[in-house]
Amino acid sequence: MISPREPEVPSWSNPDAPARHRWLPKSEVVDALKLQPRMSIAEIGAGRGDLILPAAEAIGSAGNGFAVETEPEMLASLRERSQNSRNIHVVEAPYHATPMAAGSCDRVFMANLWVELAAPIPTLREAAQLLHEDGRLILIELQAHAEWPHARIAFE
């Protein structure tokens, strides 16, 4: 179980802001995903790669990490940050229509994306179809007291 964090409003415009990393501690998130070596995982809305990079380390070189992103600035940063990771595959595609094979993932996760989606149900359907029979979908949102741009749920 993840320990509760004190409410604070991080600077969303700065992805490297220290407050942003306190409310979403990467090591705790990776632990909660229960990743194992050789797994195939996908992060929909991978952004700059803040979660897919440590998750890819957890699945090891025999695993596959798919980082799905649409935003050009995020894609550029993601490609640069993941260039030395042989098990990360950057997927430039709409969140609701990836070119990935159905049933190909052990875990699919989305962090801080749900409330930003104009049409979340198609993205949820895409995430579900990517999972194999025993796969898990993990939705992670900002802490409950964050004020930008909407109320959100805590990571617990």
Give structural notes:
This protein is of the alpha/beta class and 156 residues long. The chain has a single domain, classed as Rossmann fold (3-Layer(aba) Sandwich). The chain has helices at 18-23, 26-33, 52-59, 72-82, 120-130, and strands at 40-44, 64-69, 88-92, 105-111, 131-140. Strands 3-2-1-4-5 form a five-stranded parallel beta sheet. Helix 4 links the parallel strand 2 and strand 3 (88-92). The longest helix is centred in the middle third of the chain and has 11 residues, at 72-82. The radius of gyration is 15 Å and the shape is globular.
- Report Rg: 15 Å
Number of domains: 1
Q: Provide the β-strand percentage band.
A: 15-25%
Count the helices. How many?
5
Tell me the CATH superfamily.
Vaccinia Virus protein VP39
- The side-by-side strand order for the widest beta sheet comes to 3-2-1-4-5
CATH domain fold name: Rossmann fold
Largest β-sheet summary: 5 strands, parallel
Average residue pLDDT: 82
Give unreliable regions as ranges.
1-14, 17-21, 148-156
Please tally the β strands and state the result.
Answer: 5
- Indicate the percent of residues in helices: 25-40%
Distance between the termini: 6 Å
| General form | globular
**Text of the CATH class:** Alpha Beta
| SS-derived structural category | alpha/beta
What string gives the helices and strands in order?
A: HHEHEHEEHE
CATH architecture descriptor text: 3-Layer(aba) Sandwich
